[in-house]
Design brief:
This protein is of the alpha+beta class. It is built from 3 helices and 6 strands.
């Protein structure tokens, strides 16, 4: 998480190196939204080919009051279950919402092979541009 906070996944100069250091070549980010009333897709899958768009989407927000807790799986030693909660403020609109999510991170050796992310808030993973960055929260 320190490399993410330092912006290594946000700049073209460091993105490829950071991805190579942390993820397997066949990495999958499987992002689910639990808000069935949202106009966004229920699921978005990212691979190495489009993983930068995931990090670009997250970069549309300032994340504060971050609380992370993690627990290794008792059923699968390659997995870590992580609860990630924060306040997300849209950089373009200033609108804020509380994000509550559960992540299941699967490792292959020291690298991440799969990340399953389940959100309780709809718009975090669909900020394609500043114009589309509205969280739809007052």
């Amino acid at each position: 998480m320190d490399d993410w906070r330092q912006g290594k996944f946000s700049t073209p100069e460091t993105f490829d190196e950071a991805v190579e250091a942390f993820f397997t070549p066949d990495v999958v980010f499987d992002v689910w939204c639990a808000n069935e009333t949202a106009s966004t897709p229920d699921q978005t899958v990212y691979s190495l080919d489009n993983l930068k768009s995931w990090f670009d989407n997250v970069a549309c927000f300032d994340l504060t009051d971050v609380v992370v807790s993690a627990l290794p799986s008792t059923q699968d030693p390659s997995q870590v279950w992580q609860q990630f909660n924060c306040i997300a403020t849209n950089k373009a609109t200033g609108k804020r919402t509380r994000i509550e999510s559960l992540k299941v991170v699967t490792f292959q050796g020291a690298k991440v092979k799969r990340v399953a992310i389940m959100y309780g808030a709809a718009r975090l993973h669909q900020c394609e541009s500043a114009a589309d960055a509205d969280l739809r929260v007052a």
